[in-house]
Write a structure and sequence with these properties.
The protein has 457 residues and is an alpha/beta fold. It is 40% helix and 22% strand. Strands 12-13-14-11-10-15-16 form a seven-stranded mixed β-sheet, with helices on both faces. A six-stranded mixed β-sheet has the order 7-6-5-8-9-18, with helices on both faces. Strand 15, helix 13 and strand 16 form a beta-alpha-beta unit. It is globular, with a radius of gyration of 23 Å. The structure holds nicotinamide-adenine-dinucleotide.
Length: 457
């Protein structure tokens, strides 16, 4: 029997031991989902929607305890766990409002006894392999629209957010989603590998680029729909006409929220030389105000590093930046345990020879680089293999639009950052992935457009 031990990254304490899946149980679960899916697709839309409404009500009812569970297993500060769950309620409302109009059968031609229609048929059985950093968001972005559109879901939460995954299953089943229509798989990468080997109709993955590539290689010959939502190295440029203090406050939050462990965390900042010093000083002042510590305390802003190995990545980036001449203003070291802690870290005088400005940090650490012109900023923002989000701070909307039009990123921001909207598609350029979630496109993605050619006798 496989056992998955769950640890609290903020304290190092073991908080649970769960029975994990193995190749045999994964095959069994996939077969159950396959058998159940046609029945679920035949359930009237209003009933499917009613289940998701009850799921939403369950999240609202249990929000405090769900937030505490998420905080204990991921090290996320409790206020941010609550924010995530509250934010998910709005996303569910969007899906409930839009799934029917965006997947209704369309008649595209009707003349002389000939009718042509596009039906949005469910994909069938989909696998959802998820990340730990926003377990309710990244899971819900997939399984809520997938279930509404008639799919069965094999959901593998991250091994660092498994208890939250089990809570999702409990609430979905309580809400009336049949047990074989939403099934969780417990375990790490080996369970993800076993899941890929099953007969599935789509795989929706959120996680690192390295894992995404492995999945793409394994799934290629199976010819099933594959979506990969991967990492980023998201840049922002602060123009010479921006307010340096306001921009610094906004971007410090964008870089450090969720302890910098967001796919769309601000990871690189470029500031025009005219306001560079004022910006760096205001940025460091803001970061000094962030409270680090007890993840269950309401005023804690910086929590634990969820995965212990990431601390080595942060140490490496810090050492490399220092060795190449960057100026360290604050932090730059791991904090004493127990648990996994890293001090909020700010570097200036950085450049693209440094790993800090090239590879995803996924922690509370940031480099701020001086630039001489808008053209230089655009060139540097695009000097990356990723392309998830990018932003520009300036009071001048037309300047921002002109700059952002040249940047290769799935989402672009003017005077804001680290923001996701259910109404807009979430996707990336380059190594940030393929496919999308959210928006009406992120509902249709769980369907296949089936072409109907109907001639009257
Ligand atoms: P990860 O790649 O380590 O793990 C993600 C999931 O894949 C886990 O459930 C894991 O068990 C599973 N897995 C591991 N190896 C596997 C394999 N060989 N086959 C199948 N499944 C396997 O990523 P993580 O640490 O959970 O997440 C952090 C990463 O996710 C960051 O790079 C972050 O930027 C990215 N992310 C992206 C988005 C987005 O929307 N683009 C959102 C959240 C997180």
């Amino acid at each position: 029997m496989n056992i998955l031990d769950i640890f609290n990254p903020a304290t190092g304490a073991k908080i649970a031991s769960l029975q994990a899946d193995d190749a045999t149980s994964v095959t069994d679960k996939a077969a159950r989902a396959r058998a159940a899916q046609p029945g679920w697709a035949a359930v009237p839309l209003t009933e499917r929607a009613a289940c998701i409404k009850r799921f939403r009500a369950g999240i609202e009812r249990d929000l405090q305890s769900l937030a505490a569970t998420m905080t204990r297993e991921t090290g996320k500060p409790i206020q941010m766990s609550r924010n995530e769950l509250n934010g998910l309620l709005g996303r569910i409302d969007f899906f409930l409002a839009k799934f029917e109009p965006s997947t209704a059968t369309e008649t595209v031609f009707n003349d002389a006894g000939m009718t042509e229609q596009i039906e949005h048929a469910p994909l069938g059985v989909i696998a959802n392999i998820s990340a730990w950093n926003y377990p309710w968001f990244v899971g819900g972005n997939v399984y809520v629209p997938a279930l509404l559109t008639g799919n069965a879901v094999l959901y593998k939460p991250s091994e660092y957010a498994t208890q939250s995954g089990l809570e999702m299953a409990r609430l979905l089943h309580e809400a009336g989603i049949p047990r074989d229509v939403f099934i969780t798989l417990i375990g790490g990468g080996d369970v993800g590998v076993a899941l890929q080997a099953q007969r599935i109709d789509g795989l929706f993955f959120t996680g690192s680029h390295a894992t995404g590539v492995k999945i793409a290689q394994a799934l290629g010959p199976k010819l099933v729909k594959l979506q990969l939502e991967l990492g980023g190295k998201d840049p922002t440029y602060v123009c010479d006409d921006a307010n340096p203090v306001a921009a610094a406050a906004s971007l410090a939050d964008g870089a450090m929220y969720n302890t910098g462990q967001s796919c769309c965390s601000v990871e690189r900042i470029y500031v025009h030389e005219k306001i560079y010093d004022a910006f760096v000083s205001a940025f460091v002042d803001t970061v000094k105000g962030f409270k680090v510590g007890d993840t269950l305390a309401d005023d804690t802003y910086i929590g634990a590093i969820t995965r212990a190995p990431q601390i080595d990545v942060l140490d490496r980036q810090v050492a490399d930046a220092k060795a190449r001449g960057a100026r360290l203003h604050i932090g730059g070291e791991r904090l004493p345990g127990p648990g996994n802690w890293y001090a909020p870290t700010v570097f200036s005088d950085v450049d693209h020879t440094m790993e800090l400005m090239r590879e995803e940090s996924f922690g509370p650490i940031i480099g701020i680089q001086k630039v001489a012109s808008d053209a230089d900023a655009v060139q540097l923002m695009n000097d990356t293999r990723y392309g998830l989000t990018a932003g520009v701070y300036t009071p001048d909307e037309s300047r921002a639009r002109k700059l952002l039009a040249q940047v290769n990123a799935g989402s672009v921001y003017w005077n804001c950052c680290d923001r996701v909207s259910p109404r807009l598609p979430w996707s990336g350029y380059g190594d940030s992935g393929v496919g999308l979630t959210l928006s009406t496109y992120g509902i249709q993605t769980f369907t296949r457009p089936k072409a109907w050619h109907l001639r009257q006798p």
